Each structure stands twice: as C-alpha cells, then as structure tokens.
Amino acid sequence: MRITAIIATLFIAVAMLGAGCTEESLPPLQGAGGPVLQDAVSGINDELESVRASTAEDARVLGETGLTGAAGKEAIRQTMLTHPWAESALVIASDGVVVMAVPDNYADLVNKNVSSQPQTERATREQKPIVSEVFSLEEGFSGITQSYPVSGTEYLGYVSLAYRPDALIGRVIAPLTNGTPYDIWVTQTDGTVLYDTTPEEIGKNLFSDPGYQSARLQEAFTRIVAEPSGSLEYSFWDRSWERNVTKEAEWGTAGIDGAEWRVVVTRSTDAGEQQTAIREKSPAADAADEMKDFVAGAALYARENSRTDALAVFNNPDGEFVRDELYIFAYDMNGTVLALPFQQALIGTDRSGVHDSSGVAYVYSMSRVAAEGGGSVYYVYPNPANGYAEELKLGYVMPVDGTWFVGSGIYLPGVGTGFDTHVRETLVQRVKSARDYAQEHGREAACAAFND
Question: Which CATH number fits the domain that encloses residue 177?
Fold first, then answer.
C-alpha cells in the first residue's frame, strides 16, 4: 500500500482543497520584503531546532535502553508523528550497521552496512548533531538527514531522521508567500535548490542546470552562495513561466549543525506581472462539463493527426485549443511536458515529482488517471488571475494512446483551501498512526479496528 498516495488522496478530500541577470546592489526590498525574509530564516531555523530536540530525546532513550529496544522504537515512532512530514528514521550502530528502521516499510534496511556512506562516516567521526546536505538515501529518495549521537558509557551510534527538504521548508514558506507578490527559494552553497515557490526548480543545481547558464545569471548565483546576505536584481521567468521579468532579491542565511542555506526572497519589479492572467477565470456553473468536452475533442484531434502536428496546435496560444479560460496541456505518461501553450519554457521538463502545497503529486496523479482511461484530479495551484492565491483546481485528462495524454483545468474559487499547517499535519499523523497500527497488528486485526 502506498502511504503517500493515501495521504495525498485524503488531502484532496479534506481540501476540496527563480533566478537571471545581476546589476549593481540594490537597497533591501521595500515594504514587507525585509520582514518576510526574517520570518523565513527564523522559521526554518525553528523547524530544524525542533527536529534536533526530538532526535536528542530519541538518542537519550536509546542510550539508556539500548539501540534495538522497544522503548527506543516507540520514542522514534512518536518523533515521526511529531514531525509527520518526515519520511523515515534509522538507528545506526557505531560499526555502521543499521539496527532499527521506522516505519516498518524500511525494515529491509536493518542489518545493512552503510559504513562507507559519507554521511555515516561523518556522523561517526564527528559524533555531534549534524544536518546533512541533500543526498540519495538508502530509503530510495533524495533527502536530508538530521542525526544525533547516541552514547551510553561510550559512543554507541546515532539516530537519524530523513525528510525531503522542501517538506520542512515549505511548511514555513507557504504561509508567508500565499497571495503575496513574493517568491522564496532556498539553496545550499553548492547550488542545489532545496525549495522554490516554483516547484519545477526544486532539486536543480544553479551552476550545472542548462537553464541557468547565462554569464550574468551565473554571476548572480555565485554572489548569492558566496555572501551570507545581500541584495541584487536578476531576470528569470515569472511564476507562470510565461515571460522573463526583472526581479528584486534579498537574501539571508538559515541553518544549524553544519547546514548553510541561502534563503532568497524575490519580487518582480514589473508591476504588470500581478495583473497577468493566463486566460484562467472563475468557472461558470457548467464549466466542468465544458472542460470535459473540450478535452475529449482534443484527444480525438490528437488521435486523428500526427503527434507532431497535434502538439504544434496545442502549443499555439492563439490556436483552436485555447478558448477563454480553457487551454489544452499534454504530457507523456512519464510526466514530461509536451504542450503548455502559455508556459512553453517547461516543454521537455519532467514534472512527475512536482506537488502542491499539501503534497499532492498532481502530474503523477494525472499520468496514473490517464493510463487507466482518463478522469479528474483535484489539486491546489496558485491562480495568476487572483494574485497567485492558492485555489482548488479541477483537472481532467484523457489518454491519446498508451504513451501520452491531454488535459485541461479550471479553478474552483468557491471551495476553500484555507486549512492551516496544524490541520494538515494532524491528518497525516492519524494516517501514519493507522499505518503503524496495521504494521504491528496485521491486516485482519487492523481492518477490524478501522471498521469498528
């Protein structure tokens, strides 16, 4: 059972829910820019310190009761519920062997020797709290670990909590930027993007990604990672990936226990950007049916014409498949963009891992729905016609054949998406508690309890 898919589905049900050319240094952002940056930096540090406090308590219990005891496992399980966005926790002995994995999804890692991994070598060598850089974890995803040493009468090993950095950072940033003219992105000093309000940028590297290779853009990035704080201007795509705009930027530094993250707040100096709407307006009462007919027509057109010809038509912003608030997008079944008439800079980009503010991987979901014959997907997305406020969006997709699909979407502004972080994370905690119960007691007993 895919726990992330269950959580994403529950989120949907409950919700019926940056970078370009440097100039001379500018003064700090006017208005709310300064406070936004301060709040972002302090909020990220608070989250990191909260994780450190939790892992410190886990380490204390493990040191007193042993690395493989039930008390230690329960302490770690509670830490996972306290930080529901975390993915996993491992206990690694001083010889580099995994002796405990939580949740049980990762039980196959127990007894695995990870002593040769750089993060294990560092934790064993330094024997102090550490926030790692992003790396490929044994659990099967790229993430960050926060580790804390475990000691009894001697050094025993360490406990490590693993998570995707955008999950930790996003819970701080989303409330600061939603419905505002500000964007925020966060990078390691090696250029790895940990978080961006434009999710397509997450995981890219500022110095190696092909989209960032202009000399002036590289000059801006070099300065940002070299200086703990500062301000400048640069040019890059707007939030909608429709056009290049000039952005004013101010940055500071967050991080504890070895982490050094540049937190960059940006705002377009083009006042017209906030007025730009990509032909997306509030839907009429019959908009959903109209959208479905529109998508069905596009799928039929694609089947009756060559893929090249169909995509050329779908990518034409003045073509027949752009009608008022509706337009056709197209992806291959792996989540790579084939057609986005108003965001053509994204063509060829793999968006399968892009998710909304509640963790819903909506492009991945669209691919699965299309592969099963087509249907609807709900997700939260910034509406450019409403100051980029997050609104519920209804997408509808249909397969062209077994290799690609077409779709469209409408906003549902009358449906609230104002669930705060606490509400969302309480939901995740409940689901994870149910998962833990099922793993401990088995399917039959768990289903009986859930149905009671």
Answer: 3.30.450.20
